[in-house]
Amino acid sequence: MQTYAPQTAPHARGMTSIGIYGSAGRMGRAIVDAIEAAGATLAGGVDAREDPNALAQTADVLVDFSTASAVEAHLAAARAAGTAIVIGTTGLSPQHQSMIDAAANDIAVLQTGNTSLGVTLLGILVREAAARLGSDWDVEIVEMHHKHKVDAPSGTALLLGEAAAKGRGTTLAELRVDSRAGLVGARTEGTIGFASLRGGSVIGDHSVIFAGEGERIELNHRGDDRSIFARGAVRAAIWLAGQPAGRYRMGDVLGL
Asked: CA–CA separation, 76 vs 242, rounded Å?
């Protein structure tokens, strides 16, 4: 288990100090490098079974890429300290979302299934396409990740599904269809289907397919390096540190 110590005292050079929950993971290590490249400072980092409260009290903003089971404790620590938090942890339940809603009454919270700026823009394009194409255009979302990923569909796939549902003026819960097997019958019009692939070392590939009669539109994003998510997370953290209490999304960071 690796614990990161602060680079400098918070505010020492007028920079945003960022604390990391999940600092020993792949994303945590990538965020450490991204913080330095962005000209911010590292307030420190903790991992599983370590007390999150001290870090929350010393950082200007927190970034959480840990596990779903740790989100409740991290939110409580951030809320008690009055510290903004970016949550990029995936696999969250409706109960987690309710916790985030409650915390946003007191602190600035940005929760997203993907911190990539490219994926953020893709979500906007998906929403716009869904709003302009009729329900007779079938929507399928295909994602592939490395063999170690534990949740499916990915948080990014769900984010894109939510964007498509919003474009159609409804919710993903009403339209979602996960991977199919067996004699499942013909596709129901208006639904949003998901397929999850796992293998190798794939960072993250996502395709949103709009299939009409005689034509097809595909919107794609390929993540070739984990640093794209780290850079986006740090940019979101620096932006969020100056915001009032509320719930935010990556689109807000880009002014979308």
From this structure: 20
**Among residues 74, 145, 206, 221, which one is catalytic?**
145
State yes or no: is 147 an active-site residue. no
User: Which residue of the set 96, 146, 147, 149 is catalytic?
Assistant: 149
- Residue 149 annotated in active site: yes
pLDDT tens by residue, the chain, 256 residues: 344 444 443 343 458 999 999 999 888 999 999 999 999 999 999 998 899 999 999 999 999 999 999 999 999 999 999 999 999 998 899 999 999 999 999 999 999 988 999 999 999 999 999 999 989 999 999 999 999 998 899 989 999 999 999 999 999 999 999 988 999 999 999 999 999 999 999 999 999 999 999 999 999 999 998 899 999 999 999 999 989 999 999 999 988 7
